[in-house]
Every structure is written in C-alpha cells, then in structure tokens.
Design brief:
The complex is a heterotetramer of chains A (144), B (342), C (277) and D (332). Chain C has 277 residues and is of the alpha/beta class. Helices cover 20% and strands 31% of the residues of chain C. Chain D is of the alpha/beta class and 332 residues long. Chain D folds into three domains: 6-115 and 156-174, no CATH class; 117-150, no CATH class; 188-326, no CATH class. Chain D has 13 helices and nine strands. Chain D has helices at 6-19, 45-51, 65-72, 83-94, 116-123, 152-155, 158-161, 188-195, 198-209, 217-221, 248-260, 270-274, 282-296; strands spanning 24-29, 38-42, 52-53, 77-81, 103-107, 127-132, 137-141, 148-150, 173-174. In chain D, strands 1, 2, 3, 4, 5 and 9 form a six-stranded mixed sheet that branches.
Chain lengths: 144, 342, 277, 332
C-alpha cells in the first residue's frame, strides 16, 4: 500500500523590496527551502488583500505566509504596519472559525536575511506538513 | 384511503427509505424546520412549513452542468450532471406542491430542461394537508386548498396517525410498497379535519386577498402605477424573497475555472440584484423600482399571461416572514392598482 | 426543431476564419469539428457562443440560412466574451448552441413585397442574414432597398460584400452614409434617419430596422412621417440573456421573452410592451 | 414596552413638516400584522397619522437609507434614531457618506425591540394581534382564546438583550432623557467560542455558515456596507458568486464581509436580524470588535464623528500577528 505523501503546497506573498530580495539571496547562497513554496511578489506586504489569502487556500494551498520588511523599514514608510494589524485580525478570525492557526503566518524578512527566509520557509513547511492537507478552507471543485 | 398509526410511523419511514432517499421536514437546533434526509431516529417536524422551500429538490440552488477541458485551441466537453437516486419528499404543503406545477411550466416546456426533468421523474411527492395555518398564509387566494393538497400521495395527519391517498401512478406504487404498514380506513377522520381547518382558513387575516386586479393582459394598466415608487423605496435589493420563494426560478449560468478545467454551473439568481440584467452596453432595469416591479409583475401578470391565468405565487407566506423590511407580495397586491377602485 | 433538444449543453464549434471588418468588428466563421454547419437556422435567429471560463453570450447569425457550409457572426468588441473572441485565431474552438428566437417572417409577410432594410453600425449583422436570404430567393421578393450608415467609412461592416455583390444585383439599391465628412469618401454624409427621410421611400414596402436604440427611434419617426404604418416595420431587440430558452428570467420585456418570443418584433407589438428595453 | 408614544413622534414630525424645516420623514410604516413594519418616507401629516407606527417591532435602522435619499430628496430629511442607530449615523458621517446638513436627526429612547420569532416561540403561530402591556406583549393568535402574555425579557431581540448603549451619540433634538453607555455581556458568546477547541469552533461555524443561501441581505442592510459597487457584485472581480458552491464560498463571503466592516462596524445587529436562515452573523463582527478592543485599545465605531478606524491606523508597538493567538485559546 502506498501512503499518499502529498507535500504541502505553500503560498508565500513576498514584498518586492525586502522579502523577495531575501528569497533571492537565499537562492544565491544555495540555501535549501521546499520547492512547494510558491512565491508571489507583491509591491508591499500591505498589498495583500484578505481575499488573496482565502483564494490561495481555495486553490489548493495548505499554508499561506506573508513576508514583508521589518516594521519601520517599509519602502512606503508604513505599509507593513497596516499589514500587521490586518493580518493579526484576519488570522485571529480564521482561528475563530476553527481553521488551524499554524496554516497562516506573517514574517518580517529583510533583503539581507536570506538565511532567515530559508529557515522560515523550512519551519513553516514543516508545521504545515504536520497538519496535513487543508480541509477546512478547501474548495472541493479545485481538488482532484 | 389508508391509515398508518402513529406507532407505526417510524417503520413506515424506514420502509420508504429502503427503496429511496426519504426527505422530510426536521427541526434544527434552533427549532427551524428544514428538509433533511431521514435516518434512524429522525423526528419529523411539527412546524407548519420549512424555512427554505422544497424547490431545491428539483431546482437546486447550484448545480454543475458540464465540464470543459481546454488544451491549446481545442475544447473537450463532458456532461457532469449528478445522477440522482430515486427520492421521496414527505410532508410538502399544498402551496409548495403547487409551486412544482409552476416550475414545470417553465422547465418542462420545449426545449425541456433535462436536469430539472430527470429530478422530477425520480422524485415522489407525499404532500401533507395543513391543519394549523398561520397568519401569513394566503394560498386560498390562488385557488389552493390547503386541506387537500395535490402530489403523488396526499397525507393527512390527525391524532390517530397518518392517512394516505394516492393520486398518481407513482403514488400508488409507493403506497403498494407500504401495504403491510397501513390499513384500509374510512375518510371520516380526514373529513372532520378538513372541515375544522377550512373554518380556520376562513378566519385568516389574509383570507380575503383579492387577485382580480392582476392576471394576464394587465401590463399596461399596472406597469406605470405610481404605487411602485413608494413600495420599492425601502427595498434593500437583497435576494431573500427570491431565494425563499418556492416559485422564483431565475437562474444564472457561470463558469468556474478550477485551474485544471472549467466547470459550468447554474445557480439561482435574483431579479432584485442590480447586476441581473447588466450587459456590455448597459442595463435595462437600472433602478430598484424597475427590479422590484419586475418581480411582482412577473408573478402576478407576466406569468399568468403565458400560463393560462395561473399566478406565479402560491401564498406560502415565506417572503412575508423573511423580508428584512417586511415588504412583500401581499402589500403589493393591496396597493398596486388600488387607485382605480376608489 | 429536433426532438428532445437539450437546452443548455452546447456543441463544439471551430472558428475557421476571422475577417477584420472594422477596427472593432470582426466576422467569425464557425463550423463543427468535422467541418459541418452546427445547425440550421432561419434568418434573424441567434446563437449562444461561449468560451469556457470567460462566458457565454448571444449573437445574431449573420450568414444566410442558404449558406449550408458554415455560419458567420459579426461581433463588435464591447465586453469580456467579445474581447476574448477578438483575440482568437483560426482553429480556435468555442462552444455554440442554438438556434434561438423567432426569425423574420421571410416566407409569409415578406413574400412578394418590396423590402427596405435600414441598419446602423453593427446593426447590419442581424440584417445581413435576411438580406442575403432574400437575394438568394430573389424572385420571391420585390424591390430591395438597403440604407446603411456608420460613424465613418472604416466602420462599415461587410463593405466588400456590399460593393462587390449587393450593389451589382438587379433591383437592389444600396444607399450608404457616414456620420461625418471623411477623406476618400464621396458618398452621402449624414445620419441614417435623416437619409431615410431624404430618400423619400414609397410606403409600398416592409421595413426592417436594426441599429443603436437612438437610430431606431428616429428612423421610426422618419418612416412614420413618410406615411409608413408601424405594422409595416420590423426590428430586432437585444437584452441580457443566459439560457436562450425562456427560462432564466432575464430578457423579458413584459410577458415577452426576447430570446423566445423575439428578438424580431413588429413595431406595433413593441408598443404594447412596457418601455423596459 | 416603549416609553414614548407614537403620538409624540407624529406630533414632532408633523410640526417639523409644517414648519418647513424638513420635507420628508423617515419612519416605520404599519404592516399587515403588528410586527411587519416597513421603513418608509412620509411627506404629509395625513400619511403620518394614517400609517406611522412606533412600538416594539420598529427595529429597522434608517441610517443607511440616508446615503441614497439625501442625494435625491430636496430639503432636509427628518430621521428618528434609536441610540444604536446614532452610532451608525456617526460612522456614515465619518466616512462622508451623506451630507449632515440635509438631515434633521431626532433621537428617541428605546427600551429594546422584540424579536417576532421569539414571540412566536412563546405564544404560538397564527398571530392576529399583539398589544404592549405593562406585563409584556399580550399576543392573540388564531389558536388561543385568551391572549398569551409574553414578558418583555423573553421577547427581546438578542442585540437588545446585549444593548451596548442607551446613549444617543448624534442628534439635533432629543426626545426623552439621555441614557448611558451600558456594560453589556455582548462579548460573552464570543468568549465562549474562543474557549472551545478549534474542532468545536469549526463544527459550530460549519453548521451555521452552511445554512447561508447567499441572499446578501446581511450586506445590503449593513450601514457600514455602503460601497457603490460591492466586490461580490462585480463580475470582473472574480469574486462575484451568487450561490454557495460547496463550503468554501460561504466562508469566503462571510469572512470578507465581516473583515470589510471590521473597525467600522458599530455592532447595530442588523445583519443577524435580517438573516433569513438565522445565522448569528453578529458573532463574526463582535469577534473583530473584541480583538480590536483587546489589542489596539477600546474603540467604539461611531461613538464620535471623525475618529480613525483601527484598521486604517497603527502604532509602531502593535502586537505581532503570531502573538494574537496567545489569549484565551488554551485548548489548542
């Protein structure tokens, strides 16, 4: 019997100025992180609308992580402060609806933190993998 | 006429459920009745009617129609209707039974809607006569006899138990399969209940609702009635009335791209929604007044015009109970066209 | 009509040719994957075309029923479906279902009569099918007059066919007009309704109008001033449709469904409907 | 039972109409039964006397109607506002949704509104008359010979049991006495849910949200939902879904709906009142309010005009999203 070892699919929204560059650095330094992390580049972490996150889950993501500049370092001065509030509220709501809180995360990763990016992704992927497939925010039409 | 004692009722349900999926009104945790599939231990609700109408059984709120797979320039089409098993809907009130007739006249005329038609063929309707109509009931205005509903089998519930009369071939087949659990009986108890209910029906506050102002051919008279403006003024433009209505049948066809394929599905739509008639070059019903008028004109004038005078409303009273602003077809009927009478 | 016609499941169609008519109108030739016509139709009827995932929309069939090889659709770019179609190339598959609606009464009312066609812009699309039908069965009809106008000469639909075929037919008169003076145009300049009045047609004919609502309104007034009666004038309507078979409840005007009872209406019939189109 | 009478309100409205101060009056219009009152616009004294009602079933909040009607109607509009309505009124002003100059607001005291489904549960179906008496609502039905008295406490709507304030935060004129902001137990049920395990919470919401029929009444009635074009109506947004397809769409709709009004929701409770499927939607909104109060300081939307909503604001010391879970949730 073959056990279905489906690797978790992770969507990472990365801000253009810090985290995306951080991911780049991780790549340049050949730091490994799971291939199932799909990066979506956004101009600023506050570009991420709650709908994006829900859509990602609908389309098969098992975990969604948002990466932005460290608080205080936003390219647009204050974007990530808004992200922080919004995501705190949204994730708390998802938790309130009984959706596993380990499936969502916000992490601040600067352009210099390639190692942190890789470590974060490894850790997040591991946590999500432990939870298994996303069942609570799934859309059966998008499942095989 | 056949009778099933109260003690035998569960056995009767079990016997029906053996051959077909059995659905009946069941109270949820808040005491609201909704149709649920019967399983061992299910208790039938005593409520007058379900919050949502049983039109879902034949015209579900959403259903997948077909699937497309595209590759390069080619398209592959697959029919993905779900083949429904035989089913029995138990306890449908007279008003809702009439609603199936109204839907049939839309979906079964050429070209026949085969999705609807196949469900209609597979479903057996066991209706249930009313014994405690409520203040929002006005089915009698549309010539419906709440004490003697249509359906494949008509049922009456008294203290003694359930009484059944088969009306169609399908109904007779169902009753034949239940012969061991029912016994032949006289109609006395049923007649007594009918008389008692009829007396209550006469006392209902909406018993004297007048339909004479409406019907086919009344478009010119009613369309520009000044009353529409006031009636529709507070309308929120939500779809509550249309979605709880047993006869509203407007739908939308939409595509959903799953990433691998496109599913074309059909879902209920509401003429009350602002986008209902929007197209690339504009919207011919731009104001809520126009949309509001469309809904009621459709039920009271357009539908009867195309269907031998049969009104598109069954008087179930759901919209009276559920409208957020308590605007409803009764208020419309009492107001529109009223100026002429004075 | 075939028995037990399935209402909502379409056929697959293939676009075999895309002709650029004007800057925003293209004409698409559609057949089934095995190269045949998808279904027969009558002049004035419509079909639902769709691109899975984009949407479905109703279009008039512009080719004549006498064309047994393929169907054509002249489509103006104005919404999601049309925009997508405008990007399509030959070989692209789409879905098609129909035919829908009532045709023009070509075999009874029109038979033996003189005909006047008045079209504006992409409004020629539904009329082209009737015009070509009548040209095909030329001896069944009297004189044919065609008045067609658009914004500019570049916006004239089927220009080549008009010049090379229609104008050369005997007993067919084509009157073209454009809204404003333009270099290289020596024909008539002016709006269609005015041109119709100027041409001072005899009332011994049946008129068929199609174009923007404002053009229809004024042309109708023009025809009335020439002595035409509303019972002599036909037009075709368009409203939002989803099912095409009179069930989805969106294209009704009063008790009439444009997809089923229309799109062709006689103008006096329209007067009886509420003004909601 | 309401402390002021219909006559007092009619007199006020009639005098303002006759003086020409206002040209129209928003009020509750008599229905077929006692409980089915409809929001309506009155323009003459005769109409007011004939059809204006005020009583225990006048729950509708007029604030949102002002957005459209102040643009259409010449002259000022008189609007009667219950304490909770004044918060919505202020919130709309904060968002510049209507012109304050075009409105004459009269604050009226409210003793709480009755929920007709509770009345029916207590007195039975077939209501033909309801009288407000000292003891409670005296309900006559088709099936009772003598009226059944339903005490007010039993008939009160959920939002009124947990009334947050009897204080009017906006008015041009006040009828009756000014009330106070109340200590309410409105977050108790949110706390109960938070104390559950995620599995229990999931089961609770799955059951509730699966009842949704996507009629959009909660959105359409909401005084905070005043977008000219809602994302759920916009075909090009990719979010225009009209039916609950599976279980995802309904969660998506309700999360986004609640999130979009987070920080702006005054907790007026209209969403739960209008839901035809009785989904406790206010529990979603209150969760956001509770979280905002906990993490960003006490904030009551609509308490004052011009205050900055918490989700369009920030401090550099805000809590990190991962730390928000740290409270209450002991079972996870």
């Amino acid at each position: 019997m073959q056990v279905n070892e489906k690797k978790p699919l992770i969507v990472a929204f990365c801000c253009n100025w810090c985290s995306y560059a951080g991911a780049d650095l991780a790549g340049n330094n050949r730091l490994a992180y799971p291939a199932d992390v799909k990066i979506i580049r956004v101009p600023c972490s506050c570009r991420v609308n709650p709908m994006f996150i829900l859509r990602a889950f609908q389309r098969g993501a098992d975990g969604v992580i948002i990466c932005g500049c460290h608080p205080g370092d936003c390219h647009y001065t204050s974007g990530n402060y808004f992200t922080r509030r919004r995501m705190a509220m949204l994730f708390s709501m998802l938790d309130y609806l009984g959706i596993e809180k380990e499936r969502t995360r916000v992490e601040w990763v600067s352009a210099a933190e390639g190692a942190k990016f890789a470590a974060t992704m490894n850790d997040f992927a591991e946590k999500v993998a432990a939870l298994g497939e996303n069942k609570r925010l799934e859309d059966l039409r998008c499942k095989r | 006429m056949r009778k099933c004692t109260a003690a035998n009722l569960d056995k009767l349900f079990a016997a029906i459920a053996e051959n077909a999926a059995l659905y009946l009104p069941v109270d949820d945790e808040k005491g609201t009745a909704q149709y649920k599939k019967w399983a061992e231990g299910t208790v039938m609700s005593n409520a007058l009617n379900t919050a949502k109408s049983p039109k879902d059984f034949f015209f579900p709120q959403s259903e997948d129609l077909m699937k497309f797979k595209t590759q390069g320039k080619t398209i592959e089409l697959t029919d993905i209707r779900d083949e429904k098993e035989d089913f029995v809907v138990f306890g449908v009130r007279a008003c809702d039974v009439r609603s199936f007739d109204i839907l049939d006249r839309v979906f079964l005329v050429d070209p026949r809607d085969s999705y609807y038609a196949s469900r209609r063929e597979k479903g057996v309707i066991v209706s249930l006569a009313c014994s405690k109509p409520t203040e929002t009931c006005f089915c009698s205005a549309f010539g419906i006899d709440a004490t003697n509903p249509a359906g494949d089998v008509t049922a009456w519930k008294t203290e003694e138990g359930f009484f059944f009369k088969a009306n169609t071939e399908k109904g007779e087949k169902l009753m034949a399969s239940l012969e061991g659990l029912t016994e032949e009986c006289t109609e006395e108890a049923v007649e007594a209940q009918k008389a008692k209910t009829a007396a209550i029906l006469e006392k209902l506050p909406l018993a004297d609702l007048d339909t004479d102002k409406f019907g086919g051919g009344k478009t010119a008279e009613l369309f520009n009635d000044p009353a529409w403006a006031e009636l529709s003024r507070s309308c929120l433009g939500c779809g509550t009335c249309t979605f709880v209505c047993p006869t509203c049948q407007c739908y939308d066809i939409k595509d959903f791209n799953t990433g691998r394929e496109v599913i074309r599905y059909r879902c209920w739509d509401s003429c009350m929604y602002s986008e209902f008639t929007r197209m690339a070059h504009g919207n011919n019903r731009n104001s809520q007044l126009e949309r509001f008028r469309q809904r009621f004109m459709h039920k009271l004038v357009y539908y009867p015009e195309n269907n031998e005078g049969i009104f598109g409303c069954v008087g179930c009273g759901r919209c009276l109970a559920k409208c957020p602003i308590s605007m409803n077809i009764v208020k419309v009927m009492k107001t529109v066209g009223g100026k002429k009478d004075e | 009509m075939s028995e037990n016609r399935e209402a909502l499941i379409p056929h697959i169609g293939v676009i075999t040719d895309v002709r650029i008519d004007t800057p925003d109108i293209k004409t698409f030739r559609v057949v089934t994957p095995d190269g045949k016509k998808a279904f027969d139709h009558r002049p004035g009827q419509c079909a639902m075309l769709s691109i899975p995932g984009v949407g479905e929309a109703m279009f008039s069939i512009t080719s004549s029923p006498t064309n047994t090889e393929f169907m054509e659709f002249s489509i103006k770019k104005c919404g999601c479906v049309t925009e997508w179609l405008h990007q399509a190339e030959a070989g692209q598959q789409i879905t098609i279902r129909g035919p829908y609606g009532n045709p023009f009464p070509v075999d009874d009312v029109f038979a033996g009569k003189n005909l006047l066609f008045v079209a504006g812009g992409v409004g020629l699309a539904p009329l082209r099918s009737v015009i070509n039908y009548c040209r095909h069965y030329r001896d069944r009809y009297g004189k044919i007059d065609i008045v067609y106008g658009s914004r500019s000469k570049d916006d004239l639909l089927d220009y080549k066919e008009i010049i090379e075929e229609w104008t050369r037919d005997e007993n067919v008169n084509v009157y073209l007009t454009i809204d404003r003076e333009q270099e290289g145009w020596d024909g008539h300049v002016g709006f269609v309704p005015n041109y119709v009045k100027e041409l001072n047609f005899d009332t011994d004919k049946v008129a068929v109008l199609c174009g923007p609502p404002i053009m229809i309104k004024f042309t109708l007034e023009g025809l009335k001033s020439l002595g035409f009666d509303k019972t002599q004038v036909y037009t075709t309507l368009e409203l939002r449709m989803k099912c095409g078979v009179g069930k989805c409840g969106r294209c009704n005007v009063g008790a009439k469904y444009v997809c089923k009872d229309g799109p062709v209406f006689r103008c006096d019939e329209l007067d009886e409907l509420p003004s909601e189109y | 039972m309401q402390k002021i009478t219909r006559e007092v309100l009619i007199e006020k409205a009639a005098s303002l109409l006759n003086e020409g101060v206002v040209s129209a009056v928003y009020g509750w219009k008599k229905g077929e039964f006692v409980y089915d009152v409809t929001p309506a616009l009155f323009t003459t004294t005769e109409e007011l006397e004939k059809e204006f009602v005020w009583g225990d079933f006048c729950g509708a909040n007029f604030s949102k109607y002002l957005v459209a009607s102040t643009r259409k109607i010449e002259g000022k509009i008189l609007v009667f506002l219950k304490p909770c309505d004044t918060y919505s009124f202020n919130q709309l002003l904060t968002e510049h949704r209507f012109d304050r100059e075009k409105v004459y607001a009269v604050g009226i005291p409210c003793e709480g509104m009755a929920d007709v489904s509770k009345v029916k549960a207590a007195a039975g179906e077939g209501i033909i008359a309801i009288e407000s008496t000292e003891e409670g609502l005296a309900v006559t039905t088709l099936y009772n010979d003598a009226p059944v008295v339903v005490p007010y406490a039993e008939a009160l709507a959920e939002r009124c049991i947990n009334c947050k304030s009897k204080k009017h935060v906006a008015y041009d004129e006040l009828i009756g006495e000014e009330g106070d902001v109340l200590e309410s137990g409105r977050f108790d049920q949110v706390a109960e849910l938070e104390a559950m395990t995620p599995d229990e919470r999931f089961a609770f919401w799955q059951n509730e949200l699966s009842k949704c029929i996507r009629c959009n009444a909660c959105r359409d009635v909401c005084p905070a939902c005043t977008c000219e074009k809602c994302v759920f109506n916009n075909p090009v947004s990719g979010a225009e879904t009209k039916a609950p397809m599976g279980t995802f769409e309904e969660k998506m709709f309700h999360i986004i709906r609640a999130f979009h009004v987070a920080g702006r929701c005054t907790d007026c409770g209209e969403c739960s009142r209008v839901c035809p499927q009785d989904i406790p939607l206010h529990l979603l909104n209150r969760k956001f309010i509770k979280d905002i109060n906990t993490h960003y300081g006490e904030y009551q939307a609509g308490a004052e005009v011009g205050s900055r909503a918490p989700l369009v604001n920030y401090t550099t010391e805000d809590v990190e999203p991962c730390d928000v879970f740290e409270r209450g949730d002991k079972n996870a």
